[in-house]
Amino acid sequence: MTSFRALFFRGKPDAGYSRAKRSGKKSNHELAHERFKFIRILFVLGIAGLLVLLTGLIITLGPLDISVLDSYSALLARFWPEHFYVDELTSRVVWNIRFPRIMGGIMAGFGLGICGCVMQAVLKNPLASPFTLGITAGAQFGISLAAVIGFSFLAGPYFIIGNAFLCALFCSLFIIGLAAIKGATSENLVLAGIAVNYFFTAISQLLKYFATDEQLRLMTNWGMGDLAAFSWTNSRILLAIFVICIPLLMTKCWDLNIMTAGDETAKSIGVNAERTRIFIMVVSSLLVATIVSFMGTIAFVGLVAPHMARMVIGGDHRFLIPASGVLGALVLMSADAAGMNLIAPTIIPTGIMTSIVGVPFFMYLMMKGKRKEFWT
């Protein structure tokens, strides 16, 4: 049986481990672990700082000439107006046009990156992503219902968004419930997700076949993903879901670390793998369904960000989860900025740019990296 200590320290203990333990001194493995822990913390803080720097640089991109200093001043003037000042036009452009889109990219990328990380862990599948359980297919089905048939669960401004959210959440919960009846193993969840994903995709394609040009344009645009749909009003709903879901996922860091050694090992240590798997999938589905309903399909971010983080800092989910979130935000922000300015004034949809920008970089990391993944 794999010991608890072996889950975090590779190789055999050094010869002086027992003597160091008796004398109260730290062994070579413990010292190496502490050094690596410091590197992980430094990496997370470094990419968070890069995110702040990139925010100021992206704000300067556009027809109105805004310096980096003015972009940060406009942001800080909202909180400390007595210390920072910019003209009214710059303040309006930054806060009403450019920064909301950047904030949408940060929140969506952060959420998708975290959900991709925990899903890859509980499903033990390198191809797992926030859309493994058919969340996108369910949301697309809800959009198709509203656009073609005119049916919606909610009225008013959430006529379409409400359909996308509820159908995506229903699809995920149906798959989780189906897998729970059979046994919530990673294989059952993946197989059920693939089956339901194909089913709802087929129904959406059928509705597209009968759609008018205007209805088809609406469904197609939503399927490409667009951060322009984000607004300060939407941010309150997204922030509320984030405050609920992110801490719940972070509480399962140790359980995820233990589960990487296998369900039987986790059970022997006292972790109920099936219950943890269902809990994480339910919380992740709620978070992803909220992001997708407002911003459409933004694929690849939830797949690539956890791999990028794991190649650098390893598989300790105490650091891997936040690192995946910040890297997801960086990837999505960079892709959206490139899509807005590459062939301006034409804007390339965000969902397309995430793949164009992210795939070559991910392939480079995959070819260069030599670290074994936890599922091998």
From TrEMBL:
Keywords carried by this UniProt record: Cell membrane, Membrane, Transmembrane, Transmembrane helix, Transport
Major localization class: membrane
GO biological process: siderophore-iron import into cell
An annotated GO cellular component: plasma membrane
Record-annotated membrane-spanning stretches: 41-62, 102-123, 130-154, 160-181, 188-207, 227-249, 278-305, 347-367
Gene Ontology molecular function: any one: transmembrane transporter activity
Subcellular localization: Cell membrane
Gene3D superfamilies (UniProt xref): ABC transporter involved in vitamin B12 uptake, BtuC
Domain of life: Archaea
Membrane topology category: Multi-pass membrane protein
Function: Required for corrinoid utilization. Probably part of the ABC transporter complex BtuCDF involved in cobalamin (vitamin B12) import. Probably involved in the translocation of the substrate across the membrane.
Complex and partners: The complex is composed of two ATP-binding proteins (BtuD), two transmembrane proteins (BtuC) and a solute-binding protein (BtuF).
Family: Belongs to the binding-protein-dependent transport system permease family. FecCD subfamily.
Protein known as: Cobalamin import system permease protein BtuC
Classification of source organism: Archaea, Methanobacteriati, Methanobacteriota, Stenosarchaea group, Methanomicrobia
